[in-house]
Write a structure and sequence with these properties.
alpha+beta, 2 helices
Length: 106
């Protein structure tokens, strides 16, 4: 399946617009990761543990987006947008949502 942030696919014509689809992933960040990230923030550098969690959440949201579009009969998703939010008490959870338009191209 072609998944793109653009509104069209070079050389492809949209033959059917199906629906807006979305996929979400919510992942908790544990205390140990928070502690290590805090130390990293103090001394500088990147927080590898948070980067890994963020990457996993994005992958899960994109997989869910693709499954929902495929279930509707789409073979492509256009205009994909990714949003990242912290939720829960003290921002203890990370939510990634992906949305786009499920279409048939041919």
């Amino acid at each position: 399946m072609i998944i793109t942030t653009t509104n069209h696919i070079e050389g492809q014509k949209v033959t059917k617009y199906i629906s807006v689809v979305s996929g979400e992933a919510i992942i908790g960040a544990n205390i140990f990761k928070d502690f290590l990230a805090g130390i990293r923030d103090i001394v500088g550098g990147r927080s590898g543990s948070y980067e890994k969690v963020l990457k996993e959440a994005k992958e899960h949201a994109m997989q869910e987006l693709e499954v929902r579009a495929r279930d509707l009969g789409a073979n492509a998703i256009l205009g994909v947008d990714l949003d990242y939010e912290t939720i829960g008490q003290h921002g203890s959870m990370l939510m990634v949502s992906a949305s786009g338009t499920a279409v048939v191209v041919g």
